[in-house]
Amino acid sequence: MERGRLAAQLQFMEHNARALEELVAKMMKAREEQEAFLGVFAKSLEDIAAQEEWVPLAQCLGGLGECGQTLVSESHDVMMLRPETEILQVVTQIQDWAIVPMKRLLEDREKAIKIEAKLQKEHDEMRRGSSKEKEKKMRMLSDQKRRVENVNALLDTHMENFDRYRIQKMKKIVSELARSQAFYYAKGLELFAVPCQNIAKLHSSETTKGTPKSNPAESSS
């Protein structure tokens, strides 16, 4: 892989790592807000249920609010705690164990190539000097060429391993993102299916017949 392409790829990967961290931060904020909303949702329905005179409707209202609270408690670990270990720590591993070492190896190759170019120039410009000095310079140049070849081979090998490692870790991250969302909505569907069924069974014809109770506000006037 040519130097410019490799450097660009590493830069691209670093950008994606930062983008993932920003995405998780926004996701966590949204989930915190959703948990707070479900708390308000449950409290509001509880208050409404307390004022409702028809018991079946009051029970449905209370049950609906309880589902919101249950969803928060049963999904909190998956939605709020797992992203730290299953996503953010994995992003850090990609950065520390893959991207940074590859960048250092790339820097080593750049240095080796510069030294080789310098020795080559010195050798080409050598007009004077003993044969021994020229031979010494040639050995130095040959040794440096081998170093460049070795670092290139090492870089190619590490790049292949890096690609496998990166894809493996990214697979874990994407899987966690998908699974957490699927879990949340599946749990919500499971919980809210019950009050939906109970609400569907409500019929106004079953309410107690008779004169409606007077409005407390009207009685006090």
UniProtKB/TrEMBL annotation:
Superkingdom, taxonomy of origin: Eukaryota
Coiled-coil parts of chain: 3-33
Record region (Disordered): 122-143
Alphabetic keyword roster: Coiled coil
InterPro entries: AH/BAR_dom_sf, CBAR/FAM92
One Pfam family per UniProt: FAM92
Protein name, per record: BAR domain-containing protein
Organism: Phytophthora oleae
